[in-house]
User: Which sequence fits this backbone?
């Protein structure tokens, strides 16, 4: 059984997720920690629960989801894993910060392992399957745990909304098609853990999401 711990962080109110099971092995998804307090909150939880973070997964490489990359590398020795298209189609973190008008300096931690749709990511007794759901960004990935019915959607799908498509490589038609084909075909009871905001379910989004 996977336990999901959510940390809402940074000025974008981004959801950073820590997943672990009874073996105490864990994976981290989209670390957006930007302040020492946010970093300490995550690190204290890892230490308290005696977790070993095995991999650091990125749904995509927009600034708000990668603000903690240097912290993760410095603290746990883990480099981000993402789709290759994300590294080719987006400005650097430093350039993104400038474009958003944020007075912060970021160290770019290179992606060392490229993920593709259909990959299986194992930790402890658990596993995630990667689904390629582009449109919000060119190589957006979603991570799905079939056993527990958990879906980590990044900024592809939210409770009652979908990701914005006016940033680099965004395309609303591509995004809606990908959501319909890859996500809405999953069981209705599947729980959606989005990159921002509250959780939802596939059933709720089928019934109530105005974009779908």
Assistant:
């Amino acid at each position: 059984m996977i336990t999901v711990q959510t940390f809402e962080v940074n000025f974008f109110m981004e959801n950073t997720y820590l997943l672990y099971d009874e073996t105490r092995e864990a994976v981290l998804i989209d670390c957006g920690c930007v302040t020492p307090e946010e970093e300490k909150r995550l690190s204290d939880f890892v230490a308290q629960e005696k977790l070993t973070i095995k991999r650091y997964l990125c749904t995509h490489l927009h600034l708000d989801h990668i603000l903690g990359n240097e912290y993760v590398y410095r603290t746990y020795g883990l480099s981000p894993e993402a789709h290759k298209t994300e590294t080719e189609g987006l400005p650097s973190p430093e350039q993104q910060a400038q474009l958003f008008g944020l007075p912060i300096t970021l160290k770019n931690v290179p992606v060392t392992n490229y993920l593709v749709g259909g990959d299986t990511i194992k930790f402890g007794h658990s596993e995630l399957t990667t689904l390629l759901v582009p449109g919000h960004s060119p190589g957006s990935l979603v991570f799905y745990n079939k056993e527990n019915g958990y879906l980590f959607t990044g900024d592809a799908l939210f409770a009652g909304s979908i990701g914005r498509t006016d940033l680099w490589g965004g395309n609303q038609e591509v995004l809606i098609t990908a959501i319909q084909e890859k996500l809405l075909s999953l069981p209705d009871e599947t729980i959606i853990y989005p990159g921002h905001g509250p959780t939802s379910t596939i059933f709720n989004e089928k019934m109530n999401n105005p974009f779908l």
Observations:
- The two ends are 31 Å apart (CA to CA).
- The mean pLDDT is 96.
- The chain has seven helices and 14 strands.
- Residues 186 and 202 are 7 Å apart (CA to CA).
